# Entry
Amino acid sequence: MHSLILATAIRLLLPLMLLFSLFLLLRGHNEPGGGFVGGLVVAAAFALYTLAHGEKEGRRMLRVAPLQLVASGLLIALTSGLLPLLAGLPFLTALWSAVPAPVIGHAGTPLLFDLGVYLLVAGMSLLIIFTLMEEN
Amino acid sequence: MKNLLFLPLIIPLATAVLGLLAWNQRKFQRIAGICSTALLSVTAVLLLLEVQQHGILSAQAGNWPAPFGITLVADTFSALMLLATGLMGLCVTVYSLADADSDQEARGYHPLLQVLLLGICGSFLTGDLFNLYVWFEVMLIASFVLLALGGKREQMEGAIKYVALNLIASALLLAGIGLLYGVTGTLNMAHLAIRLQEMPHTGTIPVIAVLLFCAFSIKAAVFPFYFWLPASYHTPPIAVITIFSALLSKVGIYVLIRVFTLIFPQETITGQPLILGAAGLTMLFGALGAIAQPELRRLLSFCVVSQIGYLLMGLGLMTPLALAGSIFFMLHIMAAKSALFLTSGVVARMSGTTMLKELGGLYKRYPLLAVLFLVPALSVAGIPPLSGFWGKLALVQAGLQSEQYLLVAMALGVSVLTLYYLVTAWIALFWKNQPADAEKLHHLPAVRRGQMIVPALLLALVSLVAGLLPEPLFRLCHIASEQLLNNDAYIKAVLGVTQ
# Structure
């Protein structure tokens, strides 16, 4: 089932949705948003692309295997927990940079953790979506 | 040194993540699995030493002070259980080198095993009731996939029964936790202990205690909730059942002991007849079920249920000796029962069947294997000088001191039944003549045989040594039970104040 409308729209929607997901990720610290919902938006973007162009094209567009996204997301989240151990603080303690960065304000390990969640959720959802859409 | 408490969580998690990153590298995953479980054992030993020297340890994840943050606590009991987890993990990982087929490994057997260990270690360390629920879910997810891995029809059937019953348990647990939070306004276990001491135990609180008791009883396979265990444990590969029977149901008992000595000591005393009744019937029905089984794995699964009764007996009696006996018995049963499971796995591999009727005559060709089955079997039955004897002796003595004569009689009677069905199984496997129409034995290559037999041998030796020299281990168990019965040290370690 090829839909011309969806295929045309998704070319504009995909970058927009990805940008929006980043916005959600960064906004999530103090306001509604965060890694989880951001990751879901990423997955939704690629799911729409996959609906328009098929599962093979979707995988090609993503470039990395979804499982690798899951693994790297977990790794990043784990690292954000391990960093405070180096400073002699308990596991998962939040560390903040002293100097505020532009746009995002004070960066810290919670953002890193959120990034891990973002990748993990995106990878996990896409893993499921791609598997369901496989044509055999 | 407080960060030592996080290591039992970080090690399996990091190994699982590395395993995910190297999804197709089996060799790497295997080596990582062995290193991780070995490291876990070392960490547990360090923790145990640390707890002996400095008393109960606690740490706050994220540096949020208790009762607001998530607390990890290690006392002697949890350190002992962690040590057992590490050693069991190591044994099963080594065994899996020979036993897990390439299809299972390709679907992530090793990372899943690490996730399972993560959930188990988390449950042993956590000092927060909601966090405990989360660890239970981690365990449930990993164990569900491990059960279903391979996707054979009977495996799916077992896995669905398992997950359905465990989800019900989780729902009960969550309901209990929600109610408890509503009543007390906290979920930190030490804080709960204080709050509940100040409250009259009427109305909701006994209800919550019963809800939690039922939830943990389902997880631990206590009568009358035991039926899912034999229905699902006979389908997956032996290595998986071994780790399940050694650790998963014991987590249920661990949590029962922890929660009902720390948070609900009053309910444990008022509910004593109920707990002791459940304990006695668990023993009895497990043993009766085992006698009726014509298949080895089912027989051993019922045997797992039967032994759970003894563990619960210690909690019901609530004396220092009884709890020490329970803890000793728990460690003993992990080693002895797992040795039995692993040995029967070797038998199943070689003869291609687990039906008792179709087996036989193995003694002639493999006398060592016969001994390897007999020693843990006698230990489980409680024959001196093996470890099971001392555990049962302590429990029986405690039972006599508390004048629970019926229960003691049941415990002793079930021991005789246990001896009966295990020896019957042994005779069926090794002693009787091989049936004429039996398949020819598959000969395993030496390396594979070694990978399968060495863990079983090690565990059998643990049972033997703990039986010959029970003193040091029993002293540790006694310290653990004293710590369980005197909450003040636990509360002080977590909240930093005496009540």
